[in-house]
């Protein structure tokens, strides 16, 4: 009897505990199955059950239930691991050539090697190194930031913005205090600042001198004097004769020349020395400025660039009646020629101050704060800026000034409409133009056959001159969009990173611009137009032209944000 009572008491206690558990579960909003799981949890071996969970169950879980489980604290939660999203993993790195100037990762241009890879150096955002030490070591470099700068800048030289109130004597004293020599300094109205070129004289490390110099109260900014190189692909071989110019037909220049020749339009050519006595360039050089202060003779690159624009004897340029401001910024009478940040700054300042409407820049280098500032100021004045995309190939990062959003970047094509193998790629490419095996004038009355994006840019500069002759009020943004809208599609349908909007079509572009009878913009001081140029038009008033509209979003000429000039 006592045994039966004891058994009954245990049964009643068990029933009471079950009822209490169910009541608690109901009050918390948990189903019966879940309540049973809670009761039995202490007796379940979780590790032994984990392998038996079927992956097929996961898709059957309602997202809504999962969200409720996260927001309410109701006892044991599911293991977090299955909820990790793949989107939280490392971001895939696209090929370098596909990065825009704004998206290019990790390191700045002076700290990249020839393949576009980042060397070991601090991130511009202060978030570590651009390259792993292992890979850098594998290339025999390790932490080679100073070496990387030396390759892209002139050793021991700085370009610094200094207090404009300093006299030459005071600027020299400033330099001496920091173990420097003032090579040159001047005020640049283009950017409203005084810059100087300084050189280390006491052998101290460049970075140490730069930090100390930048800390001086009379110094506004300091940077390396970066190196720029002309963008011809191979040493051209001067030749005689009158070879066929396939570029004329590709660009449809004969048709375009029935409407415009570039008369009364001034193009500043920032390059090496130009042979103004060459028959192809007779009466085309309206002004000369030697930013180097040198006594060197004509150079094969500068002469060829001028010829691509204004040749008018046995050959034909894209704008044979345009005026050229010949700005020598690259030294060397034979072979390659180089320039620097300070000299390019002087050249841009001269072009903007002496009536240029278009600036041709067939050179490339790293991203440069001083030159970026000068280009922004030049664009703000309404000048059209055109540059060679560069000849560093598919693995190269964007090169400057072409990658600047205020600049029309031009890649090169060959006679079969293929991309020049050495041409740079990227979503900053605006247009393409012939640049392989181009016949052009060379110094001493000779001719050359050469290749490079340099000459593609020169052709496009001439086409831009045709548009400005057609309508002098055409603004840079409208001119850029006209070139893109009328370009001939190449490569994959639509805009791409190889040809941009396509190959320039001079005839279609000129036809797209309504003729204007307004007076032309004044040319460079003291210049005269060629006798056979169209008479200057003197009617008052300049009619503003509407920016060309785009017909559809998927049109080849659609101008992406990376291709548009910066807001002014």
Describe it for me?
The protein has 568 residues and is α/β, with parallel strands linked by helices. It contains 16 helices and 16 strands. It is globular.
Features:
568 residues, alpha/beta, six-stranded antiparallel β-sheet, 29% helix, disordered C terminus
Given as residue ranges, the uncertain stretches (5+ residues, pLDDT < 50) are: 22-149, 237-242, 518-568
Q: What is the overall shape? A: globular
Supply Rg: 33 Å
Please give the largest β-sheet.
7 strands, parallel
Please give the order of strands in the largest beta sheet: 7-8-6-10-12-13-14
Number of helices: 16
Share of residues in helices: 25-40%
Q: Average pLDDT across residues?
A: 74
| Classification by helices and strands | alpha/beta
Count of extended strands: 16
Terminal Cα span: 102 Å
Strand content is 15-25%
Short description:
This protein is 29% helix and 17% strand. It is an alpha/beta fold. The strands form 3 sheets. Strands 7-8-6-10-12-13-14 form a 7-stranded parallel β-sheet, with helices on both faces. Strands 1, 2, 3, 4, 9 and 11 form a 6-stranded antiparallel β-sheet that branches.
What is the topological layout?
Layout lengths: L1 H27 L3 H9 L5 H4 L13 H9 L61 H6 L6 H8 E10 L5 H10 L2 E9 L4 E8 L5 H9 L4 E12 L6 E3 L6 H6 L1 H4 L9 E6 L13 E6 L9 H11 L12 E6 L9 E3 H13 L4 E4 L1 E2 L4 H12 L3 E5 L18 E7 L15 E6 L3 E5 L3 E5 L2 H18 L5 H11 L19 H7 L56
Parallel strand pairs: 6-8, 6-10, 7-8, 10-12, 12-13, 13-14
Antiparallel strand pairs: 1-3, 1-4, 2-3, 4-9, 4-11, 5-16, 15-16
